[in-house]
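Private note to self, pasted from the team thread so I don't lose it. Backbone tokens:
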């Protein structure tokens, strides 16, 4: 098990460059099998989820390797259309491969995917979208068999704007003859990035970032080199880290236009934020002020992936903050650990009410999911004494060496690898 040991109390100051986005890279890696050409993903972050996705592609027969910070995917040798069970269980994004595998082989076999334990996370919207493209699906003992013999372009309507389902169906449609129109799609910036990647490959996809996406099918796609967008959640987490310590940071490689909901909440907490084209500075007050209410929503609303970090901030703010988690039904796993550090958080279903306290105290806490683990790390930066965050390997799914980044801004934090009792 990996642990992070943090001595709280240091103000974070300095400059840092944000790495590119996990949630852009993963669907793009899946899209790479839509061609026989090589994909070069430039400046691809070193994250465990990227590693797992690479392993799945290798198991299917692709050649995936790193050349420095470039990830090279050569799908020429791909033979499999059956997703490996053990790997798929490790990473929910394995489900992204369903659309591209169907586009390529007209059949696919997958097991229910895994990922962070933050709710039920069913895949009905993915399967429903594919069915609307003519895919026949039957499930047997947790294994999903998809037959795409009769796939054809057409209209797809989503009951809810799921990020993954939007991306999956987009990828399934790019090689179908004719026009596919996806209605009520998710509008996350990573979907816009996937559209840009697909179009660079030779696809014809328009409308990402709005409620409707139109795909004009093309005959073939080619291998390209592409730099994914910066990670807005990593940028937001580092801003929150500076904010909780009363610090002051300049971050580079920031998708500022996609982060307005987060900036707005941090400003409500009395942080001074200055935006430039691709960078941002944050100056935090001595003590943060509580925000009235934070509601997570699909983009451009407040991102659920920043909820845990803002909850950590609110534990030390003056006043009462209310957070409502509308996207996932079980995403307050970090609240109990924050309370063990001295916070006053009351969770009732999808709502958390936080009464700000003067001080948190370091103790042993457990990362239960990726963002919750980041939130506990932030709390540790301000807590008195030593905080130990167990299961820090979950944080590595989405942050490239979070501890190194924080230490470079002045935090007292180190990683240790310990053998568990079992
Ligand atoms: C993506 C992001 C994740 C982020 C989430 C919401 C990636 C790799 N992950 O996850 O970091 O937290 O968007 O912004 O991009 N749902 C269903 N049925 C489905 C699919 C989803 O009910 O078939 C539900 C989910 O359980 C959840 C909600 O819809 O409650 C949102 O999920 P979705 O937008 O699909 O998120 P992901 O694509 O899994």
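Design output:
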């Amino acid at each position: 098990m990996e642990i992070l040991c943090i001595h709280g109390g240091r103000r974070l100051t300095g400059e840092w460059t944000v790495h590119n986005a996990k949630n852009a890279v993963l669907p793009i890696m899946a899209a790479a099998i839509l061609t026989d050409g090589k994909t070069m993903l430039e400046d691809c972050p070193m994250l465990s989820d990227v590693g797992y996705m690479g392993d799945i592609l290798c198991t299917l027969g692709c050649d995936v390797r790193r050349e420095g910070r470039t990830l090279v995917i050569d799908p020429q040798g791909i033979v499999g259309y059956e997703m490996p069970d053990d790997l798929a269980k490790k990473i929910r994004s394995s489900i992204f491969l369903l659309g591209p595998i169907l586009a390529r082989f007209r059949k696919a076999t997958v097991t229910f995917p895994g990922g962070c334990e933050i709710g039920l996370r069913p895949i009905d919207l993915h399967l429903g979208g594919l069915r609307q493209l003519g895919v026949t699906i039957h499930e047997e003992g947790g294994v999903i068999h998809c037959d795409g013999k009769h796939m054809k372009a057409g209209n797809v309507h989503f009951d809810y704007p799921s990020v993954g389902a939007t991306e999956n169906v987009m990828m399934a449609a790019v090689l179908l003859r004719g026009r596919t129109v996806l209605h009520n799609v998710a509008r996350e910036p990573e979907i816009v990035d996937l559209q840009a990647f697909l179009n660079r490959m030779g696809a014809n996809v328009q409308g990402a970032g709005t409620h409707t996406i139109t795909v004009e099918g093309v005959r073939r796609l080619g291998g390209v080199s592409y730099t994914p967008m910066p990670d807005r959640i990593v940028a937001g987490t580092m801003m929150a880290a500076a904010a909780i310590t009363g610090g002051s940071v300049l971050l580079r490689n920031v998708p500022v236009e996609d982060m307005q909901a987060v900036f707005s909440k941090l400003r409500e907490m009395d942080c001074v934020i200055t935006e430039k084209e691709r960078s941002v500075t944050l100056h935090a007050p001595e003590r943060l002020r509580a925000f009235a209410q934070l509601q997570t929503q699909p983009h451009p609303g407040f991102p659920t992936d920043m909820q845990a970090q803002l909850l950590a901030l609110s534990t030390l703010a003056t006043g009462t903050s209310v957070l409502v988690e509308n996207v996932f039904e079980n995403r307050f796993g970090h609240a109990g650990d924050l309370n063990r550090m001295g916070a006053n958080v009351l969770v009732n279903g999808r709502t958390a009410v936080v009464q700000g306290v003067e001080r948190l105290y370091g103790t042993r806490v457990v990362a239960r999911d990726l963002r919750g683990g980041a939130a506990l790390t932030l709390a540790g930066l301000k807590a008195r004494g030593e905080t130990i965050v167990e299961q820090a390997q979950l944080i590595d799914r989405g942050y490239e060496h979070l501890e190194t980044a924080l230490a470079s801004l002045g935090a007292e934090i180190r990683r240790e690898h310990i053998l568990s009792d079992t």
